[in-house]
Model the fold of this input.
Amino acid sequence: MKLPIVAYGDSVLRKVADEIDEDYPNLKQLIADMFETMYAANGVGLAAPQVGLPIRLFVIDATPFAEDVEEEKEILRSFKKVFINPIMVEETGEKWAFSEGCLSIPDINEDVMRHPNIKINYLDENFEEHEIDLTGLAARVVQHEYDHIEGKLFTDKLSTLKKTMLKGKLDTISKGMIRVGYKMKFPLQKKKR
Done:
């Protein structure tokens, strides 16, 4: 089932998410729904807060990037994962810029500086523990989604000037005064009478 994606301005996007355990209700279905929602919106990652749930869960399928980045083709070709209760162990290397967007902030893409290398510890959908080292785009996608469960958005990483310039667009998104090709919930949308 496709879930509505929560738009910029909703308080759930600013909460530090809570850990979950194996008894979280309907977890397998939630994970399936999150993948379906992400694919329908042409995304490569989706965090639970983006569908209104303040829990430490995100899904990623970075395979669409495999054809674009030759040097990362091998890792990206099969980079489809579920991250439950992840812990960022390490972020290293000289930060680099890359244009990022977000399903909760449609029609805005900006260059964001992030570390090229990460080590992350997480549980998969079967609650098996993993710790992996990632580089490049795989690391970037994970960092973006990890920020969501920490209550942060990619716009937080922009300069004060850039944030000021985007304020009007962000307000427009919060009010639902945009057209998107997927179902969304807008925090400041006026109810129709």
Summary: The CA atoms of residues 20 and 75 lie 28 Å apart. DSSP finds four helices and nine strands in the chain.
